[in-house]
Structure formats: structure tokens, C-alpha cells
Specification:
This protein has two domains: about 120 residues, Rossmann fold; about 100 residues, LytTr DNA-binding domain (OB fold (Dihydrolipoamide Acetyltransferase, E2P)), CATH 2.40.50. The chain is built from eight helices and 15 strands. A five-stranded parallel sheet has the order 2-1-3-4-5, sandwiched between helices. A five-stranded antiparallel sheet has the order 10-9-8-12-11. The radius of gyration is 22 Å and the shape is elongated. This is LytTR family DNA-binding domain-containing protein.
């Protein structure tokens, strides 16, 4: 059985040292690094892709909850903090546990027991539950190479239906979502995302130009891709022309 990787994130060295000390009896966990502020945490979580992070709430650069909103890789999360007022936010983020400093070894052991009882898949709800509960999503999670990537919707250029799935195009990567395009459209703000066709949805913020040719309308994206506008959807585009 391979060891599960751990990243310790705390702006105080004694806090990081304590986690290391309490983790020593757990041979199936391996500490791969430490971070002393939120910006380092975002960088190292995305680069190292740990299975588990011990995350302080209040840190320079970005707090723990803000770190979770920024990362692409989604690990299991155990919060460690001296401030109990963040406990509700942490559990709403579906954290494994909330260790209130100073905590004992016995309390730490209870947390590890809770972790081992959970499903071994990444804690996707950590990010999902931090997204707005009303209105439209700022980010979506899309499976990519057996992991779920946290994509800001503002970075999406366009979406195309692919059978029951949806191809999501950004400037650098194309993702394949198992969700249909109509279901995805419900999560996106219609002020920015406009239908060109039953199977195509574009982010108007990334449209370079629109032109007509032989009675058809074409949309040119900032990456040079040209997409045709279906006849039934042309009135929607024409309404945007001034």
C-alpha cells in the first residue's frame, strides 16, 4: 500500500512541528513539505498534489478558506487553528476535522481515525461547498487525469456538447465533463455565456469578433477558433450588436 502524502500549512513553526510529531506513528502517511503562508500553500498544493493537508485558517498572504478557493488540486483537509469562530465555515467546507489549538495527541488521534473512516477519494465538497450557494458558479470542478481540477469559469472560452458529455475549452487545456451541456449552462451566468447552437456555448468575454458570410454568422474567439451560430440562435447574437 502506497503512503499518503501530507502537506503541513501553518505560519507558525511550532504548529508545523507538532503536526509532524503527532504524525510519526502513522507509517502510511508521509510529509512531503511545509508552507508558512497562504500563497506558498496554493503553489505547493497545485504542484505537489498532496493527499492530505493540515491547514491553518489565519495566515499571511491568504487565509486557509481562501487557499481552498484558489487551488486546482483538491486534497483532504484538516484545519488547525487557535480561532474557534471559523469552525462552522470549516465544517461547511466539508473538512475532515477542525483541530483547535492547543490540541492533545489524543484529540489528534481521533481526527486521524475519522480520516481513515472516510472514503479515500479527494474531498471534492471542500471546494463545492465554498462556492456561492445562490446565483451562478464562479468555479467548477472537472475531472482531469483521474483528479478533479478547480476551474474558474471566467477562464472558459467555450463549451461544446460531445454526446452526453461536454468539452470545456480554456486557453491552454480542454477538459471533458461527464455533465451535459444543458446542465452546465444552468450553472453559468447567461449574461456572459451565450448559446450559439444547441451544442455550443461561448463566453462572450473571450469573443474577439463576429462576422457575417453568405447569410451565416460566425463568432471568432480570442484563440482564433471560429464557431458558427445556429439559425435559431442568431437573434440572441444580433441583440448584442450595437
Amino acid at each position: 500500500m502506497s503512503k499518503r502524502s501530507v502537506l503541513i500549512i501553518d505560519d507558525e513553526e511550532p504548529g508545523r512541528r507538532l503536526v509532524r510529531q503527532y504524525l510519526e506513528p502513522y507509517a502510511n502517511f508521509r510529509v512531503i513539505g511545509e508552507c508558512a503562508n497562504g500563497l506558498e500553500a496554493v503553489r505547493d498544493i497545485n504542484f505537489m498534489e498532496p493527499d492530505l493537508i493540515f491547514l491553518d485558517v489565519q495566515m499571511p498572504g491568504a487565509g486557509g478558506l481562501e487557499v481552498l478557493k484558489r487551488v486546482e488540486h483538491i486534497p483532504h483537509v484538516i484545519f488547525t487553528t487557535a480561532y474557534d469562530r471559523y469552525a462552522i465555515d470549516a465544517f461547511e467546507a466539508n473538512a475532515v476535522d477542525y483541530l483547535l489549538k492547543p490540541y492533545t495527541r489524543e484529540r489528534f488521534e481521533k481526527t486521524m481515525t475519522r480520516l481513515e473512516q472516510q472514503d479515500s477519494s479527494p474531498a471534492i465538497d471542500v471546494i463545492n461547498n465554498l462556492l456561492p450557494q445562490e446565483g451562478f458558479a464562479d468555479r467548477i470542478l472537472v475531472e482531469h487525469r483521474k483528479r478533479y481540477k478547480n476551474i474558474p469559469v471566467a477562464e472558459i472560452l467555450y463549451l461544446k456538447a460531445c454526446g452526453d458529455h461536454t468539452e470545456i475549452y480554456t486557453k491552454t487545456v480542454t477538459y471533458l465533463s461527464s455533465m451535459g451541456i444543458s446542465s452546465l449552462a444552468e450553472k453559468l451566468n447567461p449574461r456572459s455565456y451565450v448559446r450559439l447552437h444547441r451544442s455550443t456555448l461561448v463566453n462572450m468575454n473571450h469573443v474577439k469578433e463576429v462576422y457575417r458570410d453568405l447569410g451565416k454568422i460566425f463568432v471568432v474567439m480570442q484563440n482564433g477558433v471560429e464557431l458558427s451560430v445556429g439559425r435559431n440562435y442568431q437573434p440572441l447574437i444580433k441583440e448584442l450588436m450595437v
